[in-house]
């Protein structure tokens, strides 16, 4: 059945296709539902990705099939903006997509882009990140509750040097802390700072925290991944769906939620699209203050 349609999204016209394709076989969640979700949450997704080059994590056959990260912009309408990325280590230069409006978001979703991974710097100043990120990944048997406990410790360490942070679930098993910046620091500076913070906590709690990449070191500990703070890497966006067995979302949570999960050793909340939409109706965007905050990275 050919279910290709031409739709209007604001002032734009674009074609969408294969709407009945099931992307999550376990739940039957379809490509039409993917587009519907991103359209419904566009008002909160776009402020977190607008103006940033983005990597599209595409699942053309659904989460059970082949998938790939695509930073080089695929064929696109002329109204989808792109940004030039240059990577001195590899010598590569190419155009990456920038999703500035709802139509561009729908264009990406129509490509079976389940996950959105923006770069931490704006496209106009690609070497100066506007955020610093800590990715807290618990190694079994450690779980989400232990990651939340480490997040609280990190929050305290950051507060001591005058920095505020906001949490979101990874949408899988871990937790991300976002630290907004004023754009003055380079990636080299933010990465060095994040690495130093992670190393300090790992030395203070070696039985619970690890800051080294080797997976053999992570069992029963929370790995603080500081390496995301790099010009060549991108981080999953707030409200992005994830490509697990079920459609879960990288959802913002409050520090009260983090403290409760740490105290009660709760599992990952596993918020799905419907739950996220309900939370937005009840609580709004918990990361909205992050967008309005500018902080200078300590020297």
Automatic annotation (TrEMBL):
Matching InterPro entries: LigD_pol_dom, NHEJ_LigD
Start and end residues of each DNA ligase D polymerase domain: 31-286
CDD domains registered for this protein in UniProt: LigD_Pol_like
Source domain of life: Bacteria
NCBIfam families on file: ligD_pol (TIGR02778)
PANTHER family associated with the record: BIFUNCTIONAL NON-HOMOLOGOUS END JOINING PROTEIN LIGD (PTHR42705:SF2)
Protein name: Bifunctional non-homologous end joining protein LigD
UniProt organism field: Micromonospora pattaloongensis
Organismal lineage: Bacteria, Bacillati, Actinomycetota, Actinomycetes, Micromonosporales
